[in-house]
Structure formats: structure tokens, C-alpha cells
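In response to reviewer comment 3 from the previous cycle, which asked for concrete evidence that the modeling workflow produces usable outputs, we include below a single protein chain processed end to end. The sequence was submitted unchanged, and the resulting C-alpha cells are shown without manual editing.
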Amino acid sequence: MEIVRSSTGAIFNNAAQAFNHAFFFNCLVPNNKTVEIPVTLQNLIVKYFGSVDEFNNKFIQAATSNFGSGWTWLVQNNLDKGLSIINTSNAGTPITKDFNVLLCVDVWEHAYYLDYQNLRKDYVTEFMKHIDWNFVTSNLK
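The workflow returned the following C-alpha cells.
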């Protein structure tokens, strides 16, 4: 992460993309297992989004409306520990800002186009069924 935070240009692009992709894959459960959201995280989601369903809707909407290639993230603000959803473009990553990353989905076309064509919403909706909520919760501060 230090290379991402301190680099620019081609080094930043390569390091940030490597970080973003590795983080994205860690957000997924293997073998189609279902992982329930731990109570600690569920309580925070309800506090900041109203309900788990509302969080899911907002996350899917953010990812669907993220223009071009990029990422949609659930982040925790390092200052007040609040949760929010943000989009980044290209190699952008919230670790260069004052955010702690919890969850991300890759919304570059290479992530979904072969299976979903231009139906990004369907891809993100399916992604939401395969989240490793234990991994997400382990990233809380």
C-alpha cells in the first residue's frame, strides 16, 4: 500500500491496479459459499444506510452509474469511522485518501463483459451474492 500512496504515473497505475484487483478478489467467497454479514458490520450498515437492503440498492446503483472503467467501494472514513460508498475511475483507489477500504467491485468491462455484455447492473447484483462478509468485517477499524 505504501507504493500506491507514494507513487505517481506508471508506477502508481500498476501498483494501484494490482492492489485493487487483489482486494476485489479477497472480497469474494470461494466455491459459491454464502457468508452472512456479521452483526458488527450489519449494525454499521443499518446505521449509515438504513438497512442492508438499502445498502445493497445504493451500492448497486453506485456501481451501475460509475462512468467508464473503475471501482465501487464501501469505505470507512478514518476520521469519524463512518461508512460510505464511493466510486473511483481507472486505477483510482480510496487508500490514497483518508479512507479505510472494506469492499470493492471491479466495474471495468473486462470484469463482466463476456458473461454480462453491457448489463453491468446484473453483474453487480450477482457480485452482491458472493461477498465474503467476514473479510469485509476484518477490514473495519
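The longest strand covers residues 70-77. We consider this sufficient to address the reviewer's concern, and the full set will be provided in the supplementary archive.
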